[in-house]
Amino acid sequence: xxxxxxxxxxxxxxxxxxxxxxxxxxxxxxxxxxxxxxxxxxxxxxxxxxxxxxxxxxxxxxxxxxxxxxxxxxxxxxxxxxxxxxxxxxxxxxxxxxxxxxxxxxxxxxxxxxxxxxxxxxxxxxxxxxxxxxxxxxxxxxxxxxxxxxxxxxxxxxxxxxxxxxxxxxxxxxxxxxxxxxxxxxxxxxxxxxxxxxxxxxxxxxxxxxxxxxxxxxxxxxxxxxxxxxxxxxxxxxxxxxxxxxxxxxxxxxxxxxxxxxxxxxxxxxxxxxxxxxxxxxxxxxxxxxxxxxxxxxxxxxxxxxxxxxxxxxxxxxxxxxxxxxxxxxxxxxxxxxxxxxxxxxxxxxxxxxxxxxxxxxx
Length: 363
Known about the structure:
Protein name: Xylanolytic transcriptional activator regulatory domain-containing protein
Number of strands: 2
GO biological process, one term: DNA-templated transcription
Subcellular location: Nucleus
GO cellular component, one term: chromatin
Keywords: Metal-binding, Nucleus, Repeat, Zinc, Zinc-finger
Strand content: under 5%
Strand order of the largest sheet: 1-2
Helix content: 40-55%
């Protein structure tokens, strides 16, 4: 992120970044690295306001969680430490990291999984549900947009870590995709902008002619919110318009669907099927009707993309949920195939590489 200033960053976050570098350094052996991880973890937790508030060690006082600029960086440090211990720790360190993930999840629920409301310093008009009016766009500021987008991205990285723990460690998922009322992450061109003007251009706020440097993104000022996107995938009456999402958003959505498959396979999910995707959950809570979103194209055909019967469908109780998941996977694949040719045009040899890691997903 071009606006990140390491000299002004939270000490715990900087220390964690240094620790990550040490993990991959050839100058430190495995014992030294794991010992350093323990020391850094203790230091970060002891100094973290958000961690100690949730643990009940200190009082929140008149500064709610998330109100301080350092709060989000403390959460980032805690997240990075969880990744370090889950992937580079001893068996006991990995088990402890998974066991204590609940605290980080609770911090996230209180700080980042919902957008800021008017009056808060991080309130951003492009992170709110519902249609965006021209009058509202006039109130857009780069600083508040960055602050909210940073929180959103931290929320989704935590969601992806939770998904990884479900897939690789058979953990029970801590997050439900329907909890996230945040827009999916913005296009990389907007996030990586070095000036306010570049960001406005990448978001399309200065007109379509300024989108020339945002080839591989959605070219939309706001991504679909996670909750609505999942509903759009799993409900049969809706399809996504072309270029509705960027590749990172698709990456998050496919992990959300995989988590639903894992939940489906677990006996606890089968025993508590009522209210899950495909029925009660899709209609619960306030929200913008899907058909009012510009990224939705209603196909008007309940059978489009609906897979045929499977052996599991003989169980009348689980059949609707199974079909909704299969339908969602089919829709996701169609969206991927449709957008990949537009957002990553071929150069005559193969797909052009944009960046190093995230844009290499489809390679």
